[in-house]
Amino acid sequence: MHVTPWVGMVPVDDTALAVTDTGGTGTPVVYLNGQFATQGYWRRTIDDLGPEWRHITYDERARGRKSKTSSDYSFEAAVRDVDAVLAARGVERALVVGWSYGAYVGSHWVSRNPERAIGAVLVDGAQPYDWMDEAMEQRVRKLFRKVALFAPLVRPTGLLPRMNAEQMAESNIELGRLGGEKELSAVLDAITVPVRYVLASGSSLGSRGDEQETIRAGLDPVFERNENIRLFAKVPSNHGAILKKDFRAVSGAVREVAALDPAGH
C-alpha cells in the first residue's frame, strides 16, 4: 500500500509531537533522536538510504521547534511515544534506529515488542555500564546548570529543549540508572530480533578521558550472550559527530537488519 507523505502533529498524553513521514511503499523505519536532539540529525542517513524506504522521524516532548511541552519527560514516556507515533501513522511493524538516548529507547521498545519490531540499529548508545554514581550525578547537575545559562539564546534554534536545568539533569540521571549493567543487560538479553550496533570512538560531551570507551566495552558480554545482537561497525568519529560523518555505517546497518526480516516487508 502506497502512503502519501505527511507532516503534522501527533497528540499523546498531555502533549503533541512534530512528526514527518516520507510515505511510499518501503519498509517503515522510525528514527529515535538523541536526548535533546531533533529529527534533522537523521537527514544524511535518510538521504543515503533513499526513497525506497519509508522514513518516520519526530521530535520528542519539548524538543525541536514544534513539539509541545509536557508534565512528563520520563524514559517511559519516551517509549510510549514510539507507540503513539507508529499508531498515528498506521504502522504495524517497523525497523527502529536510535542514536544515544534514542538507542536506549529503541532497545526497550524492541525488547518489549518482538512481534512489531523488524529489528533495530543502535547508534552509540544502550551500552550496559554502571556509570551513574553520586559523584557523576553531581557532575550532571553542574553540567546542565551551565547549559541552562545559554538556553535563552539557543532555544529559538530548536537545538535545546524547552526544559529547565533540573528537568534536563533528571532525564540524564534517570538514563544513567536505567543503563546500569544489571538493568540494561536484562533488557538486551531478552531481545529476539536482529540488532546491529554502530559505535563511535573517543569521548562525548561531559565525559573525561577514556570513560566512553570503557562504557562501550560493556557491550562485549552482550554480544557473547545474545546471538541476535552484533556489532556492525566501530567508526572513527566521536559520539556527537557520528550521524554527520559516519551516516553510511548507520544506513548499512539498516540494510543488513532489514535483509534478515523473514517477513520480507
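The above is record 1. Record 2 follows with the same two-line structure.
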Amino acid sequence: MKKIVGIVLSMFLFAGCAFSASYNTSTNWFDTANVNHLNVIGQNIVKANKMPATVSFKVTDNQNMNTDATYTQIVYIYSGDLKFVENDNELAAVVAHEIGHLVNGHSAKSGLVNSMLSSVNPNMKSDGANTTVRLLKTISSNKVNKENDKEADITAVDLLAAAKYNPLALISVVYKSDIANLGGLMDENLSCEDRIMNIYDYANYNYPATVKANYKTDSYQKALNLIYANLKIRNADPKKLEKAKKEQEKLKNEKLKRVRNMAKSTNPWSSAYSLIQLSGN
C-alpha cells in the first residue's frame, strides 16, 4: 500500500514539475522532450478554445512558416521567440500569439497586400520608380505588421484566459524580447511600449481579476513600472484618459465585428474562435 502511495505521489510530483517547467536562453527547443512539451501546451490552448484537434506544433528557425497552417494542420513556433520563455505561462503566450495570427488570417491578408503592391506599374524601368515601389512596399508592410501584431496580441489574451494560463505572461515575453532588441529601436512592428500598453489595457478591460492578481516574474514587474508610468501620465490628463477609454470601446466593437465575420469564415481557426467568443466562454 505504501509503495502504491509512493508511486502515485511520485507521479503527482512529476506532473507538477512538468507543469511548472522552467527554461532559459540556452534551452534547446528542438530537443524532442521540449517539442513534446510544447505540443502539450499547444493542445491545452487548442482544446480549451475548441480549435482544430488534429493540429501539431513544431519549432522552426524560419520566422514565416505558417502561411499554409490552415491546410497543413502544423503550426510552427519561431525559435527566436522561444528563447525569451521562462515558464509554461510564457510558453503558452508565445503559442497563443502565433495562433492569434492564424485566427485573424494574417498570412492571407499580408499576401493580398503584397500582391496588390507588386501589381503597381510592373513595367516601370527607372531606378527612381522602382525605389518608390520598394518604399511603398516597406511602409505598407510595416503598417500591416503593426495591425497584425495588435490583433494577434489581444486574441492571444482571450485564448490564454480560456485555457487558464496567465495572459500577463505575454507582456513579460514582449518586454524581454524588446530589451534584447536594444529597447525597441530594432522593432519593425509595434514598439515595446505600444504593445505592452495595448495588451495590458485589453486584459485589464476584459479580465480585471487576472490583472489584479498580478504575474510575479521579474520581467513583468519591470514592465509594470513602465505601465504604471504611462497610467500616471494618462490619469493626470482627462483627454488622454477619455481617449484610452474610447480606444478600449473601439477595440471591443472591432472585436465583435471580426468575430461576426469569422463566424462566416472557412478558416477553422477563425470559426472556432468566433464560436467560443459568442458563447461567452
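DSSP finds 13 helices and two strands in the chain.
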